[in-house]
Amino acid sequence: MSWFNNSPLLSLLKGLSENNVKVVVTTDHGSIRVNNAIKVIGDRETNTNLRYKLGKNLNYKSKQIFEVRDPRKAFLPSRNVSTSYIFANSDDFLAYPNNYNYYANYYKDTFQHGGISMEEMIIPVITLVPKG
């Protein structure tokens, strides 16, 4: 609150309000602190993102992952006919079995983008309307 009360943003919003300007404030989606590594096996074409993977030869425990086997049905791009997507849920992240313990510890308790969580799926929006 101290930062906001002394920031140029407050002055800008007051000036816009005095000129009867409606302001819409939003932000990019958030990030989530990840804590639980999920093992995923992919070929060399699989992307390296920690919260989602796309590829044609993904191996994982399906009960731990949200999967999209036909990208067209979810309006996702497809590199080839056998491309599928998987997404980490809640505070999970995806790690390869090689050096699994190292990466599981390295990325645990870090903030990551992507996956399926409220922080990633909900985009905050507020509309400010001048009084008067």
List low-pLDDT spans.
none
Number of strands: 9
Quote the average pLDDT.
Answer: 92
How many helices does DSSP assign?
A: 4
Strand count, sense and closure of the main sheet? Answer: 3 strands, antiparallel
Shape: elongated
Helices and strands: which structural class?
Answer: alpha+beta
Strand content: 25-35%
The helix content is 10-25%
The secondary-structure element order is: HHEEEEEEEHEHE
Widest β-sheet, arrangement of strands = 4-6-5
Report how far apart the termini are: 25 Å
Rg from alpha-carbon coordinates: 21 Å
Provide a descriptive summary of the structure in words.
- This protein has 132 residues and is α+β, with helices and mostly antiparallel strands.
- The protein is 20% helix and 25% strand.
- The chain is built from four helices and nine strands, in the order ααβββββββαβαβ.
- It has a three-stranded antiparallel beta sheet, with no helix packed on it. It has a two-stranded antiparallel ribbon with strand order 1-9. A two-stranded antiparallel sheet has the order 2-8.
- 17% of the residues are buried.
- The mean pLDDT is 92.
Topology:
Elements: H1 2-5, H2 8-18, E1 23-26, E2 32-34, E3 36-39, E4 52-55, E5 66-68, E6 84-87, E7 92-95, H3 100-107, E8 110-112, H4 118-121, E9 125-128
Parallel strand pairs: 3-7
Antiparallel strand pairs: 1-9, 2-8, 4-6, 5-6
